[in-house]
Task: inverse folding
């Protein structure tokens, strides 16, 4: 997904759905707002019950219309992010046959493993607001960082936490194959995979691009690491 909804954006939208609904009621004309509501109501997935419970009378009462619009926006957000449904609605949604994939959350200890740093560093990054929208918990409370949280890299670029986690799992998986071959063969094979994926050497592909998307940013970091390790192995007198 090129434009994912981040943890911070999701929180803002959820907290301000009523205000957003009110703004959407003022789209030049009331008729435009009604039309937008109808299009969204029919376009959003898993929304049959809401659509069937509505009739034209809601448009005659602006407050009721605003309330229904706010509910529709909240439902759309849940669908867009596949966020875990609030407990208050869990039974109702279950009876309707609606299934949801909750967003994974990680503790600072888990993130320290995925990022290859200490827990102290993860806490320091929280204080520095490197995890967008996440504030370090105080007292005896614990932090849980959702996978859709944006992480600001030292270069200022943003990456999703889930991308960092996926990169770690990918490297762990590849380490299993490495057990059956020497280091140079492993790094050479991995480098060849990226050359095939991007159609050429690093310096002529990702290395020549100024704006990388999250997947390319992740691949570029891994690829450069492989190239450095490959260079070291070539120099190794024992090889």
Result:
């Amino acid at each position: 997904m090129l434009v994912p909804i981040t943890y911070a954006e999701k929180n803002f939208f959820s907290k301000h759905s009523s205000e957003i609904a009110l703004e959407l009621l003022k789209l030049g004309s009331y008729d435009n707002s009604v039309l937008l509501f109808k299009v969204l109501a029919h376009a959003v997935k898993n929304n049959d019950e809401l659509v069937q419970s509505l009739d034209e009378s809601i448009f005659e009462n602006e407050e009721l219309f605003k309330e229904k619009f706010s509910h529709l926006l909240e439902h759309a957000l849940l669908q867009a992010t596949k966020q875990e449904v609030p407990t208050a609605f869990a039974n109702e949604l279950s009876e309707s046959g609606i299934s949801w994939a909750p967003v994974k959350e990680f503790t600072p200890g888990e993130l320290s493993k995925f990022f290859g740093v200490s827990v102290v560093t993860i806490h320091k990054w929280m204080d520095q607001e490197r995890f967008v929208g996440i504030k370090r918990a105080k007292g005896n409370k614990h932090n849980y960082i959702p996978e859709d949280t944006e992480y600001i890299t030292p270069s200022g670029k943003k990456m999703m936490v889930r991308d960092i986690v996926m990169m770690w799992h990918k490297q762990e998986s590849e380490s299993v194959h490495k057990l059956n071959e020497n280091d140079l063969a492993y790094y050479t094979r991995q480098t060849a995979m990226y050359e095939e994926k991007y159609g050429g050497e690093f310096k002529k592909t990702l290395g020549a691009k100024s704006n990388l998307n999250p997947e390319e940013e992740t691949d570029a970091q891994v690829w450069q690491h492989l190239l450095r390790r490959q260079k070291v192995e070539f120099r190794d007198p024992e090889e």
